[in-house]
Amino acid sequence: MKKIIVILSAALLLLAGTNAFAQMSSGLGYVNSTTVLKLNKNGDGSTSNVNGLYAGFGYTIPLVEGLNVTPGVYYELLYEQDADELWGMTASGTRIEHYINVPVTFSYGLSPMSGVRVFVFAGPTASYGLASTTRGGMSIGNISLGGKTDNYEDGDYGRFDLMIGGGAGVQLGGFRLTAGYDLGLLNRYTGTVDGISRQTRRFYIGIGRLF
Questions:
Q1: Which of 49, 76, 123, 159 has a 20 to 30 Å separation from 86 between CA atoms?
Q2: Is the pTM of this model over 0.70?
Q3: What phi and psi values does residue 28 have, to the nearest 5 degrees?
Q4: Residues 6+ apart with CB under 8 A from 184
Q5: What is the pLDDT of residue 90?
């Protein structure tokens, strides 16, 4: 799967390089990832949220008047830490996840005034989990116990997801502000129990610099 992501990224960048009007951009921002876990098809499911950051780059290629396509490659880091105290004992857990995301978004925009462009966008994103670990522990006084789990190797957590989403943004001179939402289409539960599903949803907001 890593090879597929690399080949896809290279192909998108090659396509961008063949267009004389392609405009490169770099970007970073905040992301909130929500996992919805259902134990059966008719259940409401439980949700868990993880905050993080993303950074990467893209190429905006004009297609027709007002319509652009922007392939890109972004790194995403998610981090969650929690701790509870009960009867003198402290239980803690930390989850860290690393992703490579490859979006291809189509945008349509208008320029109400010079140097300003407002736009909406939509498209798919291929997401690949590089690593996901959970470190849990318990301490009583000066005594601590704990361990580290690889969620991909030791659990039933799939690495790959295909998301679809959209959002809106505004371009001010050489800067671009965007906010968007993605919905994971694949079930990331890889276990053998029927009826269980694990899906991902992402909200993000960020700023980009155009070159």
A1: 49
A2: yes
A3: -150, 160
A4: 127, 161, 162, 163, 199, 200, 201, 202
A5: 60
